[in-house]
Amino acid sequence: MRLGMVTLVVRDYDEAVAFYAGVLGFRLEQDTDLGGRKRWVVLDAGPVRLLLAEAAAPEQAKAIGAQAGGRVGWFLESEDFAADHARLVAAGVEFEEEPRQEAYGTVAVFRDLYGNRWDLLQSRRPRTGAGAGPSEDFS
Q1: Which residues pair with 42 in a beta bridge?
Q2: Domain that holds residue 6
Q3: Is pLDDT at 137 greater than 80 in this prediction?
Q4: Is residue 85 part of a domain?
Q5: Structural domain includes residue 53
Q6: Closest Cα to residue 24, out of 111, 133, 128?
Q7: How much is the pLDDT for 42?
Q8: Torsion of CA 90, 21, 99, 104, to 10 degrees
Q9: Burial of 120 (0-12, 13-18, 19+ CB in 10 A)
Q10: H-assigned helices in 24-137
Q11: pTM, 2 dp
Q12: What is the number of structural domains in the chain?
């Protein structure tokens, strides 16, 4: 078995697609109207697909921007950290820190349009199934 898709609760489908596809560069794979303001919106984010789910209840809305409890919840792997970092900064992405060198690679934490924390990460070692390495920020 393998993880194939994860859900990200969002405020608005269209603004989420604009950010995750337009800014981060994920490919919009499917956008199907399910009726009643619900859509099936799937982005190809590499080996894992991202399902965007617009919050439909107050409990769901509370999760927007805090889905990992304030921790880094997503790890965006890069083959060219400097170019990707510069492209994201030019697109208005706000990084919490300057890029730093760690034993596992080059990393910098940024927040998406909802405040969820992400690592932009270029691994020092070749990628092998399990992932490139953890964020230094475990809080």
Answers
A1: 30, 51
A2: 1-64
A3: no
A4: yes
A5: yes
A6: 111
A7: 98
A8: -160
A9: buried
A10: 58-63, 81-90
A11: 0.87
A12: 2
